[in-house]
Structure formats: C-alpha cells, structure tokens
UniProtKB/TrEMBL annotation, chain A:
Natural source organism: Mesorhizobium mediterraneum
Residue stretches spanning the membrane: none
Listed name of the protein: Molybdopterin synthase sulfur carrier subunit
Automatic annotation (TrEMBL), chain B:
Name of the molecule in the record: Oxidoreductase
InterPro entries named among the record's database cross-references: Ald_Oxase/Xan_DH_a/b, Ald_Oxase/Xan_DH_a/b_sf, Ald_Oxase/xanthine_DH-like, AldOxase/xan_DH_MoCoBD1, AldOxase/xan_DH_MoCoBD2, AldOxase/xan_DH_Mopterin-bd_sf
GO molecular function term, any single one: oxidoreductase activity
Domain (Aldehyde oxidase/xanthine dehydrogenase a/b hammerhead): residue spans on this chain: 29-137
Entry keyword annotation includes Oxidoreductase: yes
Keyword Plastid: no
Classification via Pfam families: Ald_Xan_dh_C (PF01315), MoCoBD_1 (PF02738), MoCoBD_2 (PF20256)
Keywords per UniProt: Molybdenum, Oxidoreductase
Length: 81, 754
C-alpha cells in the first residue's frame, strides 16, 4: 500500500481528494487502479501524468517500482521549451 | 530498460573537453541547410491568408476567384483539413489554430491558404479570396479577460478546478492550486510582510530563422516533410493525425535550426503545407514571413501576478503566497499552473500557497518559451524577496541563503527534493568578485534565483561502427545547442576513442525509433543516456568479435581505453586489439558492428541558477545600460563546457531583452502593432555586456555521468535580477516588464512626485 498525493488540478478529478491509498507495486499498476477507483483521473492519465517518487519525477516508465514507504506525488505532465 | 542510469562517479577523458563542433564549419560558411534552404523540382509556393480581426465569426469563404487565377494549383480552407481528432481536445485546438474553422480568434489566425507557381501569383490569389466576417468584440489583456463583462472567446468553456461547478462560461479555463502548511498562521508569525502586484507583457522567443518547410505528398499517399523543428517525430505524429495518414508513411527530416527556444515545439504551417501539396499533387514550400511569425506562431504568456511574503526579524520566511494569471491565447493551456509550481521552488517554506488562472485572450496560441512560465513567476517572487530583505535590513544573498531549499526540503510544488544546487549557486554568487565590485552613480546591482524542472523522455539512438573504425552516431533529438558535439564526446568517452572518430547526425523519422520533442532541456541529458547505452551495447559486440579473432571465450575479453584486452594468465601474450582492428575484420566475424538503444530517460533532476546584474539608469530619460552580468548555474556535469556556457549566456541575453525592451503591443482594434524586429526590439551585441559564467557540477544521481539539463534555467532569473538592479539604480521598485525607458521614467517621476 502506498499513499499517493494528488497535486494541482488532479485532486479535483479524484472527487476533491488530495491523498489516496493504493495497493500498487509499480507505476503501471498505480495508474490502472487509480483509473478504476477514480474514473475522473482516467482521461488525465491517458493524456500523461508525471509521478514523483521520493522527489525524482518520472513521466513514462510504467515498470518503475514504488518502494514501500516511498513518497509518491502525482503531478501534471508539463511542457518544456 | 536494461540499462543502469545511476551516477557512477567515473573519471573522464573526453567529456569535459572543448573540441570544435561538427556542424560549425557548415554554419559559418553558409553550407548548413536551414528550413528555407531546401528545394524540390516543381515545388509550389505556399501562402496563408490570415484574419485581420482579433475576433470574428467566419460566415463564408469564397475561394472561386482565387482558384481560377492562372498559376494557382490549390486553395484550401478548414474544409480541406477535416476534424479527425476523435475527441482529442488538445489536437483539435492545434487543428483549429492551423486553420480557423468557425471563428478567427486573433489577428493573424489562418483562414485559407494557396499554392501557386510563384510568390507573386500566390499573393494575388490571397487577395481574391473573399471572407465574410462578422466582427466580434475582443479582449487582449489578461486582467480584462477575467472580468465577467469581457467578451467570451468560447462559450463552451466553464472554469475547471473551482469548488463549485460554475454555471456561466468564462475566459478562465482552469484554476489550480499548490502549496502546503497554513499561510494565515505563517503570516501571523511574520514581523515583516511585503505584498506587491506585478505585470509582464507578452514576448516572442525571437528565433532568427522563421518557420519553414517543404511538403511533398505523393499520389500513393506517402509523404515527405522537410522542416525546421525541435521535434520531427512529434511533428510527424501531429501532422499524420491531422491529415489522416499513417505515421510511418510520413517521413519528416529536420533541418538545421536557427533558434527555437520552445517556439518550434508546435505545428503551425506544416499541416497546411501538407494539405496544399496533397491537393495540388506537387511539392509545396511554405516559409512564414517575420510578420507572420510574430502574429501567428506561439509567443509566451502575458501575466498579472500578486505576491505576498512574510518573514521574521531573523530573516526566516514564515509564509509565501502568489496568485498568477497567465494568458493562453485563445486555447486552454497550463501556463499559469507551471508558474504556480515554479514560483517558490527555490525556497524552504513551511507555509506556501500558489493559485494559477489560465486565461483566454484574443492573441496567438501561447507556446513554450524556454522554462515556460517560470521567468515571470520568478520576476514577481524574486522582486518581493529582494524588497523583503531590504525591509529586514539583510543582505539579499544572505536572506536567500537562509531560506534556500536543500536536500530533504518539501518543494512548494509538492515532492521532497533530492540533492539540489540552489545553495551552492548562492554561495558561489556571494563569493563571486562581481558582488564586491564598486558601483558608480545611477548604477544598481541586482541578483535573483531561478528554478526549472528539466525533463527526460523517450529516446532512441543508433551507433554504427564502420569497417575503417569510424563511428556514426544517429540521434533523434534535434541539435538546438551543440548536442552533436556533446553526444560525440559521450560516444568517444564510452568507446575509449578520439572525438574526431565520431560523426553524429540527426536521423529522420524513418531511420530511427521515436524520440520525444527536444524540449525541457532534455537533448543532451536524454540522448547522452541513450548514447552511453548504445555504446555499451556496441562494446559487447566488439568484445564478442575480439573473442572470435583470438578464438577465446568472450568472458575473457575486457574493453579498456578503446581496445579489447584478453584477461587471464593464459592469454597473457595476446596483444590488445583496437576498435579499428576489430572493425576491419567485422565482415568475417559476423557482419556490421552496431549498438542500439531505446529508452525512457527519466530522473532529469531539477536545476537552479543564481544571476547577478549591474545596470546604469539615466534618470533623465529612463534609458538603461547593462554593465555587467554573471550567471552561476548547476550543470550536473558539463559534457562540453563551451556549449553549457553558451546556454547560460544565451538565456541571459534573451532575458535581458525580455526584461528591458520586448513586448507585444496591441492596438485598440486588437491588432498587433509591432510585428517586426524594427519595432519589437530584441537585444543586439551593443546592448549586451560580456556575460560571465560559472558552471557548478553537482552530479545528477540519475545519469551515469551526472548530467543535468542546462538549456532553460538560465532564462528564469534574468527578469528578476535585472528588475532588482534597475530598482536599486533608480530608487523605485519596478513592477512591470519590460522596463522600457518610458516605463522607468514614469516610475521615477511618480516616485519624485510622491
């Protein structure tokens, strides 16, 4: 079980929740379960979401494991210049 | 990804040196081919008809007269670019921006296009297209657009992110909020509070090369596109989707790039050129004029920002708050949200709250501009930080050092930082001779910090070893700042060979796997990771081939300094085999030798910079002169230090222009008044001092060499550093960018008047 903080505009898409508990071993499972439990997040996940694991931001790596007790933040995927 | 990206702390031979760039000679002798330098036999000239109105319903377009003009081979409107976006709102916005459908949403919005045998006939044809407009009220100012009385750009937009679902449409597409703690409690603990409002005007990236492409659609449905872009693979995806093509049937080749800075991350003319070519059955060349680049490509947001920061007498910040309103042009964006994320990212804050509002206006669709949205937020925050330091009577550098984020700090946008470089950049600035240099009359010094995220992303690289031992490196990230040199250094480092033995090229979309856009300061970070991986795969093959040549087990072959070395006492008499010797025998040992890599480069690592600036202000005219400028920035590891310095200097130069002169000026009619470099003044050499640089190297733990992106962070601090310098020189706080002479003079006179 990991505690996931939904930041910025993502919380609103999850029914106003800023923190959710999810049983997930990696980013893929996290996204799948988030979409199941909070359908409002699914289109945002499809468009692209960034996952910060202990401060390091990952954008596309489904296989990235979520260590037990890690700090997980979901952030909007940003544009660069 | 079977590749360990962790920092290894190795010593370097090639990386960190400063060889001449492989594209340098062609560029200085005029041989390099930019977007407009490509031509095809039988190509037509494409031209675009643009709306003269800021906001208008398109009732009817009659192209019949233009189509009958001899020499005209195709005329297109939105009807020739049907909506194939399948509910993808972002792609629909791109489509609508490339060619207006029901409404023209800004001065310069494309409404039709022609392909003709020459430019004269194409221009004549544009004049023969009759567009029946119903002119609508418009709004171009970000604050005005937020008012309930403002003309609505899109009555289907209801503000997202509000606690209560709105019942009326709005130009505000979204509200976002970041932060932690309790700011009310924090401000209650403050002995000093500074509260200010700031504005920044819209600016353009100002790349010298305009958008240019040649499109050639064949009758069999395949197509080629030669284009100046920061990301030809993304252009391929977008153009293929908009034109209903399979991506593999559209080959996109990127030209040399004469500047992009985020502005060439977006398709504008390319789908139009492809649609024209498809209709005409001939190649079409479309080059935007400078006027079109200003009016109809993607400048940055105009902003309006309120900042409030409180601190105790001892210099500890107790609370920080910002409300950021960013213009998006006529389509939804996330520009204010990025500003809200980055605004206070340099600081260790117990109580922080930022709120962003995305605002639609009748201006061109906002595009990324180098660390998009961060410079404006930094201008507001760093100005208030400087003012607060003065209130507390504390040195501005010491004040920032006291409150700087560090490893373990919870960032203002959420996650806790790993190892970061804000503290070291501040310490370096504090100890830099620039900070101690004397100032003269009417001169002021300013400094400021800046933050940017940096990104990685999907990356694919091929490394091929020729039979003569030379190495071809094919990458898919466009070389926007010297990356071919940097990546050649990386390949040379891994293989243990000379830099001159490596030739790096940017491959087209049919020759290499997908690569994300070259944005987010990712070019060298991502492609160096893929190059290291590809080189290591090639070394594995080289070891196998050496084992064959020696007829020993590959387990007994190591790779050391560009040579295969037989390990173990039983092989003690075998001499080394060089890469060249192994390559020469490759035809007999299994064929070509290559290394390939496809990966997602994650863990780019955030980046920080501190800038120092000296300015002289003429109190009689408000004119300014930048006397001295210093950039201190963390590069993780500078692969090619000269090009890292170039990025630092380039960001500072663009920032100086943005801070002091550049702005989009709209008339009351909603039309852009200064769409050219004569009236939109970017800095020239005589406006700039020598920009000194200091590279710090705090290794990124998520890259084998410790590399961090360096391309964007350097534009984050300049607006603030310069504003602080001007404010100190003029004796009045400047709150409106650009600080053009009339604006400075008005501020001085208002201060004198009390």
């Amino acid at each position: 079980m990991v505690e996931v903080t939904l930041w910025g505009s993502l919380g609103a898409a999850a029914g106003g929740k800023n923190k959710v508990d999810i049983e997930a071993k990696d980013i893929r499972e996290l996204f799948r379960k988030l979409a199941e439990q909070y359908p409002g997040l699914e289109p945002l996940i499809d468009r692209g979401i960034a996952v910060a694991i202990d401060g390091t931001i990952y954008r596309d790596t489904w296989s990235k494991e979520l260590p037990e007790g890690a700090e997980i933040f979901l952030l909007p995927r940003l544009a660069g210049g | 990804m079977n590749f360990d990206p962790r920092y290894s702390g190795r010593n370097f031979t090639s990386v960190g040196t400063r060889p001449i760039r492989p594209d340098g000679v062609d560029k200085v002798t005029g041989r390099a081919r930019y977007g407009a330098d490509f031509n095809m036999a039988g190509q037509l000239v494409g031209r675009v008809l643009r709306s003269p109105h800021a906001h208008a319903t398109i009732r009817k377009i009659d192209t019949s007269k233009a189509e009958k003009l001899p020499g005209v081979k195709a005329v297109i409107t939105a009807a020739d670019l049907p909506d194939l976006t399948d509910g993808d709102a972002a792609m629909y916005d791109i489509l609508d921006n490339c060619m207006a459908r029901k409404k023209a949403l800004y001065d310069g919005h494309a409404v039709a296009a022609v392909a003709a045998v020459d430019a004269r006939i194409a221009r004549q044809a544009l004049k023969l297209i009759e567009v029946d407009y119903e002119v609508l009220p418009h709004v171009t100012d970000v604050d005005e657009a937020m008012k309930h009385t403002a003309p609505l750009l899109n009555d289907a937009i209801f503000t997202e992110g509000l606690e209560e679902k709105p019942v009326k449409p709005s130009n505000v597409t979204k509200r976002t909020q970041y932060g932690h703690g309790d700011i009310h409690e924090g401000f209650g603990q403050a002995d000093f509070v500074v509260e200010r409002s700031f504005k920044t005007e819209q600016t353009h990236q100002g790349y010298i090369e305009p958008h240019a492409c040649v499109a050639n659609v064949s009758s069999d449905g395949t197509a080629d596109l030669w284009v100046c872009t920061q990301g030809h693979f993304v252009y391929r995806q977008h153009c293929a989707q908009l034109l209903g093509m399979e991506a593999s049937k559209l080959r996109v080749t990127s030209s040399e790039i004469g500047g992009g800075f985020g502005g060439k991350t977006h398709v504008w003319a390319e789908p139009v050129a492809l649609a024209l070519s498809r209709k005409a059955g001939r190649p079409v060349k479309l080059v935007m004029t400078r006027d079109e680049v200003f009016r109809a490509s993607g400048p940055t947001s105009a902003t309006s920002i309120d900042v409030k920061i409180g601190a105790r007498k001892d210099g500890t910040i107790t609370a920080a708050e910002a409300t950021l309103r960013y213009s998006c042009g006529p389509y939804a964006g996330m520009w204010a949200e990025i500003g809200a994320m980055t605004a206070f990212a340099c600081y260790r804050l117990e109580n922080v709250k930022t709120v962003g509002y995305e605002v639609l206006v009748n201006r061109p669709k906002t595009a990324a501009y180098r660390a998009p949205s961060a410079p404006m937020a930094a201008f507001a925050v760093e100005s208030a930080i400087d003012e607060l330091a003065k209130e507390i009577d504390m040195d501005p550098v010491e004040f920032r050092i006291r409150n700087a984020a560090q490893e373990g700090t919870r960032s203002s946008y959420g996650p806790v930082y790993g190892p970061i470089g804000i503290g070291p950049t501040l310490e370096a600035a504090k100890n830099h001779p620039h900070m101690k240099a004397p100032l003269g009359k009417n001169q002021g010094r300013g400094m400021a910090c800046g933050f940017w995220f940096n990104f990685g992303g999907q990356t694919c690289t091929d490394l091929n070893i020729g039979m003569d031992g030379s190495v071809s490196l094919a990458v898919g990230t466009v070389d926007v700042g010297g990356s071919r040199a940097s990546l050649s250094l990386v390949a040379a480092e891994e293989l243990g060979i000379a830099y001159e033995q490596v030739k790096a090229v940017v491959a087209d979309t049919s020759s290499l796997g997908y690569n994300d856009m070259t944005d987010g300061s990712r070019g060298t970070f991502s492609s160096s990771m893929a190059t290291i991986s590809a080189a290591r795969n090639a070394i594995k093959v080289l070891r196998e081939r050496a084992a064959q040549m020696w007829d020993i087990s590959v387990d007994d072959v190591a790779w050391e300094q560009g040579h295969a070395v037989a390990k173990g006492e039983k092989h003690g008499n075998l001499g080394k085999l060089s890469l060249k010797e192994i390559a020469a025998e490759s035809g007999k040992t299994g064929g070509p030798i290559a290394g390939h890599s496809e990966l997602v480069a994650d863990g780019a690592g955030v980046s920080f910079a501190t800038h120092i600036c000296d300015i002289e202000v003429d109190p009689e005219t408000g004119a300014t002169k930048v006397l001295r400028y210093t950039v201190v920035q963390d590069a993780g590891k500078a692969v090619h230090p000269t090009y890292v310095e170039g990025q630092y200097q380039g960001g500072a130069a663009q920032g100086i222009g943005w801070a002091l002169n550049e702005e989009y000026i709209y008339g009351k009619d909603g039309r852009l008044q200064n769409a050219g470099f004569l009236d939109y003044r970017i800095p020239v050499c005589s406006d700039l001092p020598m920009i000194d640089t200091q590279i710090l190297e705090i290794p990124n733990p998520n890259h084998p060499y410790g590399v961090r992106g360096v391309g964007e962070t350097s534009i984050v601090p300049p607006l603030a550093a310069i504003a602080n310098a001007v404010s100190n020189a003029a004796g009045v706080r400047m709150t409106h960018i650009p600080m053009s002479p009339p604006r400075i003079l008005a501020a001085i006179e208002a201060e004198r008047a009390g």
